[in-house]
């Protein structure tokens, strides 16, 4: 049975102010100011990562907001679209029960959804972590990862995030109403990679693609692994879906 959380009058006021402020979020700057302002009253944190997944589980977008300076290596470790820490935390949450997940340094228990990340979180200095998402919405899913919470997260913080989640989700969507573009990628796709991705879309196996292009199966496999890393996906279906959303396959045809 979930613990009952009753908001104090001050917390209710903070919540209302946070929701009202979310209605004015329409650009990256106002989103950052909102997360560093009104949201901090209920959910104090140093770093927040928002991840949008497509209908097939492919990562479509990753945004990071932080009130403290993150060195380039630390930012890459956290926000890499291939196997960054935030992406792995989000995937772990998606595989667990649809409720807020926590990992706090003051807890001796290392089981649960995020238990396997405890040592890595401690090593990277991220401290207490709170993760929650929308679940499947028909068009995909959004997950938010909050790191370096100064207080040990529990049912109360999870409830706050659950209440604010729809407003975080809608605000994030408003930041990206335009069509995704290939410039969102960490590097441009090569002509050969686009060619292979087009044949994957046609349902060709690695062997068939190798025969068509006059290369070896191993070369096709290596190209696909680079394609997956560049697109931030983990399989053929996700790669095709991501390629279509970025209009890469139009240019490859």
UniProtKB/TrEMBL annotation:
Domain of life, per lineage: Bacteria
Any Pfam family hit: GerE
Keyword entries, A-Z: DNA-binding, Transcription, Transcription regulation
Domain HTH luxR-type: residue ranges: 182-247
Gene Ontology MF terms in the entry: DNA binding
Record-linked CDD domains: LuxR_C_like (cd06170)
Coiled-coil zones: none
Protein's GO biological process: regulation of DNA-templated transcription
NCBIfam families tied to this protein: EpsA (TIGR03020)
Record protein name field: Helix-turn-helix transcriptional regulator
């Amino acid at each position: 049975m979930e613990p009952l959380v009753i908001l104090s009058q001050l917390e209710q006021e903070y919540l209302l102010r946070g929701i009202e402020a979310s209605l004015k979020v329409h650009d990256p700057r106002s989103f950052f100011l909102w997360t560093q302002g009104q949201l901090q009253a209920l959910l104090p944190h140093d770093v927040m990562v928002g991840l949008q997944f497509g209908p097939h589980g492919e990562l479509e977008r990753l945004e990071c907001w932080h009130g403290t300076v993150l060195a380039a290596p630390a930012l890459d470790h956290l926000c890499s679209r291939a196997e960054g820490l935030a992406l792995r935390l989000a995937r772990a949450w998606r595989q667990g029960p649809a409720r807020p997940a926590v990992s706090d340094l003051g807890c001796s228990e290392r089981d649960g959804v995020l238990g396997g990340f405890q040592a890595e979180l401690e090593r990277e200095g991220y401290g207490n972590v709170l993760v929650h998402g929308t679940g499947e919405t028909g068009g995909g899913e959004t997950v938010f990862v909050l790191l370096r919470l100064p207080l040990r997260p529990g049912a109360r913080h999870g409830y706050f995030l659950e209440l604010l989640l729809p407003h975080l989700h809608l605000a994030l969507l408003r930041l990206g109403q335009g069509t995704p573009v290939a410039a969102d990628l960490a590097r441009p796709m090569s002509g050969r990679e686009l060619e292979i991705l087009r044949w994957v879309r046609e349902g060709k196996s690695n062997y068939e693609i190798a025969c068509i292009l006059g290369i070896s199966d191993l070369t096709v496999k290596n190209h696909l692994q680079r394609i997956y890393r560049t697109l931030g996906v983990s399989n053929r279906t996700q790669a095709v879906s991501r390629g279509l959303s970025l209009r890469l396959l139009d240019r490859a045809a």
